[in-house]
Amino acid sequence: MNKDNFLKFLKVPSINENAADVGRVSEISDELTVVDENLNSKVTSIDTEEPEEFVLMSSDHKISQDDNDDEIGVVIPLSELIQKIKNWDYINNYFDQTIWNEVQNFIPPYTKQLQDINWQDIHVPDDRLAAKKGLKFLIRKGITHRYRPNVWLSITGALEFSKDPTRETYEEKLASVFGQSVPSRIIKPPMFGSTCLPFSDHFMLKEGQEACKRILCVLAMDFPLVSCAPTVPDLVCIFLHFLTEKETFNIVNALLINISRGEPFFPVTNKDSHELVFILSDLIRQRCPKLWQHMQTIGVNSSAFQGWFLRIFTGDVPYATMLRFLDIFLCEGQSALLRISLTILYDNTATLLNTTNEADFLNMIHQITWQICNQDLILKSAFNWKFKKNYTLPDYLKKTLQNIKEPDCHVYYRPRIDTPVNLFPSELFEIIYEWIPTRLRIQDPYLVYSSAIDGYSISNLYHKLRSYNYTLLVCKSNSNRVFGAFIDAYWEITRGFIGSTDCFLFSLLPETVKYHHTGAANNILHVEETEFSIGVGKKGVGLKVMDNWRAESSSSEIFDNPPLNGETDSHNFPIVSFDVYSFK
What we know:
The protein is an alpha+beta fold. Helix content is 38%, strand content 11%. It has 24 helices and 12 strands. Helix 10 packs across helix 11. The N terminus is likely disordered.
C-alpha cells in the first residue's frame, strides 16, 4: 500500500454513517458464560473448496543484473551489528516515520478510554499467566503506545524466556546461523508459507526489512517444522515498530515455543487455518442464518475470511485498529479473532444482504473493514457473544478437515559458510540452496578444491574430488562471468556418462539462473584424462574444461542453456579461477 492510500484510509469517513454501528450494543460481560445448546445441529451445506494455496518462490529463481546492487557481497561484522541493533537512532530507520507518526497520533474519534486509563500506575507482572489474567480487561479497553512493549513482552512469555539462563541469547543464535559476519542484504529469507514478505503493509524501509529477514532466518532454523505460518512475518514487522530486534525475536520465539507445547495460538499448518475458517463458518450459520444463506446463494466461500486469522487483519483494517485487535489477540488468542470476525459480519448483515454477487460481497467487506475506527463499539459487541469454552467442530467438518493437505513447503536451512567465498557473493548460496536436491539442504558447503590453493591441474582436481559424490563447480572466466555445475557422481575417468537428472548447470554473474536437466538425454558428465564435459548434446556441450584451463560453452539441449560465457566468447576462453564445494 502506498503512503497516500494509507493516510487516506487511516481517517476515512464512513460510506454509510451507521454501517459499522448496526446491531447489538451492550456492556462487556465480565464473565463469559457457557451457553449454547445448538452447536451440534445439522448443517445442510458447507464450504469445502480450498483457498488459494500459499507457495514459496520458484526454485528456478532468476536475479537480473539490475537486482544485484552494490550491497550484494557486503557483510557486517557480527559484533558491529549487535551494537547497531541496540541503538534506537538506528532502529528508527526501520520504517517510514511520516506514516508511523500518523498511526501513533491517531485516536479513534469515538474513543476516550486511552485517556481514562493511566497505564503508568499499573503494575505489569513478569509472569505470563498472571499478566494475561490480571490485565485482560484493561487490554480490552486499550493500551497506549508507550506501554505496549512492556505489556506484549509480559503476556507472551518473552520476559520469562529471556531470563532463563539455560536458553541461548539472540546474539548467540545470530552467530550460530550467520557466523561472525552477517550479509547486509539477505536474498532468500524463509517465507513461512507466504508468497511474499509483507513489508509494504507495515511501511518497512530497507534497514527494517533486513532486521525482519534476520529474525526470520533464526526462527526458521530453530523451528524447521513450522513452514506454513504466514502470521510470523507480519508479527515480526509489527513488533519491530515498538521493540528492539532482540525483543522482537524473544516474543515470536516464545509464542512458537508455546505452540510447540500444544497451546493453540496462531495457525502453523494449513489444517490449523482451515479449522478456524470452519469454526467461523459454523458460527455464521448459527448466529447469522440469513447472511449464511445469502453467502451460499451468491457463492461466497468462507475461506475469503482466512486472511483475518492468518494476518490478524493486517491490510484489512486501519493500522491503528489492527494494533488494538493485536493487543487483545496476544492476550486471549484465536477466540478474540473469532469474536471480532463474527461481529463484523453480524453487525453489517443488512448491508451485506444487498450485495448481488461474490465480487460485490467481497468489495463491500473490504470497504466495511477499512472503516473500523470505532474500535470500542466492535469490541463491546465482540465480547458480548457467549461461546462454549472448548468449541467442537461438527463431525462432518472434522472429516473435511482430515482431508486438508499441507502445501509443499520445504524445510528452510541457511547454509553456514566457514571459508571465504572468493568468486561470487556468499549470499548467492541462498539461491543455490534452492536449486540443489532437498536431501543436501540441511548440510553446509565447504571448499574441497581451489585453483588459488591447489593450482591448475586436471589430474590434481580429479585426485581431490575422487571421494566426493556431490560437488558444486564454480568457474570464473576472463570476462568476469561466474558459472558452473552441480554434479552428483564420483569423478572417475570413464568411457561413458555419469550423473543423474538432479545435475544442472547455472550462471551466478552477471545474472543468477539455473539450467536444469531437460530429459533430452542422460549425457551429463563425461570425464577423460585431460578434460571433462558436462551436458554433451547434439547441438554442443554445455561446459567443457580442458587441461590447459581453457574452456568451451555452447547451447546444449541437455540443460537448455545458452553459452555460459556469452555468445561472443564461447570457444576456447581461459578460466581464471576455479573452486569446487562439497557438502557436510
